[in-house]
């Protein structure tokens, strides 16, 4: 099968049937791209997720663009982005055309209330998978916890958290880690 059609189909299917946005798509993308097809390895997938999260724009579109580019360059990124965006566009168009007639319907309201807990679970699942893949342990768990608390309780901008984490990771990897390990060897 043509890789462009296959990639478009995968991202169209994921975009069409994932409720809850980009983070809910992560396990599906990982399963299709990393596990089933081995188009990219787990480490590259984690790197692409980190880049996708820290670049402006919609996470699901960003990750599809980066994966498409990794697979087949500019054409690949255009195909995977279109596959991700098109289902949402079509669904929103249909909702805009027909939802006005049903927005006060009790059954529709109950359906949306029932979907909410499933969306929370779909977002929580990749969080734990990412933590495992990022090798978060008892020594590093404080980093995401403090970051979340700074954002949630004190209203810090995630941009500052990303910048501080990036600088901290660079400093740790460049100087502190080397000093620490050199002292252990002596």
- In sequence order, what are the helices and strands, one letter per element? HHHHHHH
Q: How many helices in DSSP terms?
A: 7
Q: Tell me the count of domains.
A: 2
Average residue pLDDT: 85
The shape is globular
Share of helical residues: over 70%
Poorly predicted tracts of residues: none
Cα distance spanning the termini = 57 Å
| Strand residues, percent | under 5%
Helical/strand content category: mainly alpha
Short structural summary:
This protein has 186 residues and is mostly helical.
Please tell me about this protein's structure.
The chain has helices spanning 3-17, 22-36, 42-54, 59-98, 106-133, 142-152, 158-185. It has 186 residues and is an all-alpha fold. The chain has two domains: 3-135, no CATH class; 138-186, no CATH class. Helix 1 (3-17) packs across helix 4 and helix 2 (22-36) packs across helix 5 (106-133). 20% of the residues are buried. The protein is built from seven helices and no strands. 81% of the residues lie in helices and 0% in strands.
Describe how the helices and strands are arranged.
Elements: H1 3-17, H2 22-36, H3 42-54, H4 59-98, H5 106-133, H6 142-152, H7 158-185
Helix pairs in contact: 1-2, 1-4, 2-5, 3-4
Keywords:
globular; 7 helices; 186 residues; 2 domains; single chain; 81% helix; mainly alpha
